[in-house]
């Protein structure tokens, strides 16, 4: 059976964009693959995290995954740092990667523009650890948002380089991006993606654990335009297009269908429909989250997922070390 893997950092606050752009698609595909979903706590350390909060954040995120529909009969959930093979392979992958390749990564370039030379090495070599996360499990499919395609491309390049030098070791992954909802945009600035790192009082970001009345107010105050025409046009009508995308995903229809249905409404009426339907979804999600948020049960789930992933990761790293000529076990 083919393998699928994805991971999310336990940093910031889980947003509607995280759900619609990544986890919803993982859930829709999980019954077709041997599925692995990991909490990328090592990646989260590229910025400072309060040590006493990390464990609780990991448990929160595990409960969020389950509330989003992750099925434990189909998916193994684990914490990245619980499996040392991720770090070990990440180190070996770094030997196969060139500085120029890493310096061209969009995430690094964007950070360097704002901090100058103050970029941590961890952020610079982030792609080599991410490549290891994927190659370690021979994942064929990686659900990602549009802004993560570059990471999958460099993973393929590094995996192919390994295979040419040392023989057939790794499966080369493909990314999966949904036809709709690759990026859910900020409600107040629809030219920027909704971000987990946004402050809690950000009026443009829907946090999945927000009070539902706060969520509705954010939708009603979303920036649009003055034309009062409900049409999907990301270039000229980014705000309306973003709201149409959210409603289309909630209803599981396409935006053209919504354009026809809503063509006689004004923006206020349209926003109210989006706000009400999103509120129902958020209420249901939060109810499920509370049911899953049991610390002992969540820890058991993570332990069980780790045991399954550990076996596969250990076998793969042993093979890699044999190919390198450094396996002395």
Characterise this structure.
It contains 14 helices and five strands. With 329 residues, it is mainly alpha-helical. The protein folds into two domains: 3-178 and 294-324, HUPs (Rossmann fold), CATH 3.40.50; 212-290, Tyrosyl-Transfer RNA Synthetase (Orthogonal Bundle), CATH 1.10.240.
3D shape: globular
Helix content: 40-55%
Estimated share of beta-strand residues: 5-15%
User: What name does the CATH topology of the largest domain carry?
Assistant: Rossmann fold
Q: Tell me the number of structural domains.
A: 2
Q: Which stretches are low in confidence, meaning pLDDT under 50 for 5 or more residues running? A: none
Total beta strand runs: 5
According to CATH, the homologous superfamily of the largest domain is HUPs
CATH architecture of the largest domain: 3-Layer(aba) Sandwich
The H/E string reads EHEHHEHHHHHEHEHHHHH
Specify the biggest β-sheet.
3 strands, parallel
Count every helix, treating DSSP H or I runs of 4 or more residues as helices.
14
**Structural class by helix and strand composition:** mainly alpha
End-to-end gap: 29 Å
Q: Write out the strand line-up for the largest beta sheet, numbering strands in chain order.
A: 1-2-3
Residue-averaged pLDDT: 91
* Broad CATH class of the largest domain: Alpha Beta
Report the C-alpha radius of gyration, rounded: 21 Å
